[in-house]
Amino acid sequence: MKITLTNAGKRFNREWIFHNLNYEFIPDIKYAITGPNGSGKSTLLQVVCSNLILNEGTCEWQLDNTNIQQENVHLYVSIAAPYLELIEEMTAKEFLGFHNQFKNFIAGFSIDDILKEAGLYNAADKQIRFFSSGMKQRLKLAQAIFSDVPVVLLDEPCTNLDASGFELYYKWIEQYCNDRLFIISSNDKNEYSVCEREINILQYKKTKPIVHS
Fold first, then answer.
1. What is the pLDDT of residues 76-107, one digit of tens each?
2. For labelling alongside 198, which of 35, 89, 142, 189 has CA 20 to 30 A away?
């Protein structure tokens, strides 16, 4: 999928988070949206995945030269983010099974296979509320990366991961994300060192007056 932002701007109340943003995200490229905490990285990621509407400009999604309507973009995108909670009353196996009702997993991977990849197979039948923060993050990443979709979006992907979790993250990106559009939001170089291109959100935060009609 190709995602194109044209003269894009987003604000909350009187504050412009970004504006006059022109950018094209294309498949087979890994992108990093960078900037300090609170600068608007997550907001841009939410626009890209169609969860937020722009105040000005356009965001267009195109797959195989066919335009995708905003209300259907979620079918082609998977996302893992700190503000997207797991269903903690479910077990890990139940959660992946529930997710699988909406999005298929990569061909050749069963739920058990994914849990083994994530190092969570022995906790497959444990309720998520009893997981450590690192285990929860592995599960979030697994449901996003192993979804069979053309776009993978990750916000602060290595939060709460230990050294082995970082190794797993790098492995999954290298093995399963090379043929997709991959975008992460992060201010940690250890997380976005895998990316070929970087977009610093601060470049699009110059003061702009609010015009009232």
1. 999 999 999 999 999 999 999 999 999 999 99
2. 142
Contact indicator for 126, 117 with CB cutoff of 8 Å: no
Predicted TM-score (pTM) of the model is: 0.92
In CATH terms, 2-204 corresponds, of 3.40.50.300, 2.40.30.260, 3.40.50.2000, 1.20.120.450, to 3.40.50.300
> Nearest CA to 51 among 22, 73, 68, 66?
73
Structure tokens at 143: 């449901």
Taking the C-alpha atoms of residue 111 and residue 121, their distance in angstroms, rounded to an integer, is 9
Over residues 107-148, the pLDDT tens digits come to: 999 999 999 999 999 999 999 999 999 999 999 999 999 999
